Amino acid sequence: MNKSYNLSLCDISIQYALNGIDSSIEERLLPFLKDNKDYDIKINVDKVKNIEFPKKSIPISVSHFNYVLDNEKNYIWADYCESALVSSSADWCKATISATRNMHTHIEESYLLNLLQSNLSKNKGFILHGSVIKYGNEGIIFTASSGVGKSTQAELWRKYEKAEIINGDKAFIRCFSDEVMVYGSPWSGSSNIIKNEKAPLKAIIVLEQGKENKIRELKDLEKLFLFNTHVYYPYWDKSLVNLVMETLNVVLKKVPVYLLSCKPEREAVSITKKTLEFF
């Protein structure tokens, strides 16, 4: 069965065409359908009988995924999957995923994410581990290590301030000349909150658990140190890492970053709202 999805993710247009393969993430993609005449990324998924993995080059290994980059083609495959291989143009804009059978959800979403992230990095963007809310038509990101309380704080804002949760796991960020935007995406972790929404980014909140609720703005190296550990870098491509670092420096100059030491209670919302000057 052949099927094509015309998508818009982070204001990047994608043609995602499956030939003889069914998508395991179709429900996640449907909110992002958009009629596009031109595409920034074209991805074909083709069913094949056999796959030949690159053998001449030593791959770069990142979190169980392997990457081979050269002047003409790039390749991606997972350590634990011999049934699918990504080959793309050197600029990451045209790609083919060859698969001998329908891909497991994790494989399909990882390959698609890798291709989008590579293009996002070239378009003044990056991905941050965090929960995203939209309040008063502006975006706020709560970032922290897993288990600290990102989803809890987002849910408190939904409960007490009627904020809209855009995504519970990953914040997609793009920097434009006049503003920084945050986007929802199909990648939501265990939260399963998938919304095709975007908003100007008002603030980034770094969370830590505390015995009392208090918030302060971070400055200079402290801001970079506490924020940087939650950025997803495209470590498979040094040039993309450099682009993300450049974008990150611009974003940190435009968007305030705060450290919120908090408990899972309404007061944490109140002091944050007051600090951000929402009335």
Query: Could you tell me the number of beta strands?
Result: 17
Fraction of residues in helix:
25-40%
Report the major sheet: 8 strands, mixed
**Proportion of β residues?**
35-45%
Indicate the multimeric state: single chain
Overview of the molecule:
The chain is built from six helices and 17 strands. It has 279 residues and is an alpha+beta fold. A hairpin with a 5-residue loop joins β6 and β7. The mean pLDDT is 94.
Question: What keywords describe this structure?
Answer:
279 residues; alpha+beta; 8-stranded mixed sheet; 5-stranded mixed β-barrel; 17 strands
Task: Please outline the helices and strands.
Layout (H helix, E strand, L loop, with lengths): L1 E8 L2 E8 L6 H4 L11 E7 L12 E3 L2 E5 L3 E6 L5 E6 L4 E6 L5 H18 L2 E11 L2 E6 L6 H12 L2 E4 L2 E6 L4 E4 L14 E12 L4 E4 L2 H9 L2 E2 L5 H17 L2 E6 L3 H10 L4
Parallel strand pairs: 2-3, 3-8, 10-14, 14-17
Antiparallel strand pairs: 1-2, 4-5, 5-6, 6-7, 7-8, 9-10, 9-11, 9-12, 9-16, 12-13, 13-14, 15-17
Summarize the structure.
With 279 residues, the chain is an alpha+beta fold. Helix content is 25%, strand content 37%. It has six helices and 17 strands.
